[in-house]
Amino acid sequence: MSLLVVGLSHRTAPVSVLERAVLADGVRAGLLRDAVAAEPATEAVVLSTCNRIELYADVDKFHAGVAELSTLLARHSGVSLEELTAHLYVHYEDRAVHHLLSVACGLDSMVVGEGQILGQIKDALALGQELHTAGRLLNDLFQQALRVGKRAHSETGIDRAGQSLVTFGLSQLAPATGSLTGKRALVVGAGSMSSLAAATLARAGVGALTIANRTVERAERLAHLLTEQGAAARAATMAEVPDVLPTVDIVISCTGATGLVLTADEVKIAVANRAATVADGPAPDLSAPDLAHSAATPAPLAVLDLAMPRDIDAGVHGLDGVHFVDIESLAAASADAPMAADVDQVRAIVLEEVAAFGAAQRAARITPTVVALRAMAADVVAGELSRLDGRLPGLDGKQRAEITQTVRRVVDKLLHAPTVRVKQLAGEPGGAGYADALRELFDLDPQAVAAVSRADTPGSAPGTAEPKRGRP
Question: Is 112 exposed, middle or buried (0-12, 13-18, 19+ CB in 10 A)?
């Protein structure tokens, strides 16, 4: 079996395609089930973020695997295969490992070095484990990716090279906002990205923070948490958003909605109302300290859309009185080179870890054969001892125990050196054939070896990929 990844990201596809291809939670589950039900694949994990959609699988045929995974991505994303194919990339074996480890370290992120991707990789693995679509290979790979990502952040300065998407987005709003201290802000959404945005604004010292969410209880919990930490935060319903918009300086939106949360007309009305508020007097107090407003024209409304698909109408880009930043403009702005030395150091770590993962996997592939060999040897010893009992029935318990221990010790010593050496050889490049050689030399039953592999695979369950592992 071999590792294959088929996907698209901000590097290969325009935002217009990425936002249509985004996979909701239920869709991801269906994609994984269909992937392991397909003939070429026995395991699958999907990594889906606002910047990438990648399907990882353990396949037995490369070309059939690429065709099947591409078709499944098109079917579940709703983007036609013809359109999707133009933006897909394919990585196989060591290149697939290298790709995921690079992703985990933030080297492939829109903002190089950001750490949020580690949480997304962890969630992807958790879903694969929950659905029993992640077997030994993908469990090992994704666990390794999490370890390598943490190592990169702890051993290098990659954190200085990049920022979280929220921090980067706020830096792009700076021409409109200046210092965030004392500003009024609205965060739409209460998921992980929105929570990060709200916490970031609170730490930056915004004067008043309103959190609006479709499920208002989630907004209330987040507002309560931030209030306990000293922020002036309150919750609001989505119906209140049009009334809140004219009273704030900053809007950040990141929901899981499939349609627009804010239209260009709604933002245009809010901007007009902001100007009217400045002309008529100070904005109404929303349980926050009084904030000074310009006696003339208010500063532009700073709007940041971090959602994929987009929450805010792209037409907002053309409105006067608005400084609008979305995923597409962030992608264009992220071309600034990060600290080259830190990136080079992380790349070296990735290369080292790819080699280590490959060696470990090659060595692991021979383990079921070695286990089956030792099991066969144990059966031979048991059979010979049983035959000895028939020929020498007068042996007492002590004599029989001594003979048994001696025979087992001889077999263990004979097998020890070759099995240790074959594991070492199998871990080296080109060592995949040693398992086959061992099976041939000792005439091992392929089904016995396959049974060891199945018994030693985590997360297996009836109806998942595992039954197909017994194929010779």
Answer: buried
Q: What is the pTM of this model?
A: 0.67
CB atoms within 10 A of CB 357: 21
**Three-state secondary structure call for residue 449:** helix
Active site residue 105: no
Strands lying side by side in the sheet with 184-188:
233-236, 208-212, 184-188, 250-253, 301-305, 322-325
Q: Going by C-beta distance under 8 Å and a sequence separation of 6 or more, which residues neighbour residue 57?
A: 3, 4, 5, 35, 40, 41, 42, 43, 44, 45, 65, 69
Residue among 4, 21, 50, 322 flagged as catalytic? 50
Angle separating helix axes 94-104 and 136-155, nearest 10 degrees = 40
For the chain, the average pLDDT equals 85
User: Kind and range of the H or E element at 167?
Assistant: helix 165-177
pLDDT at residue number 64? 94
For residue 145, the SS3 value is helix
Would you say 104 and 118 are in contact if contact means Cβ atoms under 8 Å apart? yes
- Given a cut of 80, whether residue 293 has pLDDT beyond it is no
- The CA distance from 241 to 164, in Å, is 26
How many degrees, rounded to 5, is the angle at CA 151 between CA 149 and CA 156?
105
Distances from the Cα of 270 to the Cα of 267, 275, 279, 314, 450, angstroms: 5, 9, 14, 16, 65
Find the range with the poorest average confidence among 52-61, 300-309, 331-340, 397-406.
331-340
Q: How far apart are CA 317 and CA 324, in angstroms?
A: 6
CA-nearest of 216, 257, 269, 262 to 241 is 262
Residues 65-69: contacts with CB under 8 Å, at least 24 apart: 65/4, 65/40, 65/41, 66/4, 66/6, 66/90, 68/35, 68/38, 68/39, 68/40, 68/41, 69/4, 69/6, 69/35, 69/41
Domains of the chain, earliest start first: 2-161 (3.30.460.30), 176-333 (3.40.50.720), 356-470 (no CATH)
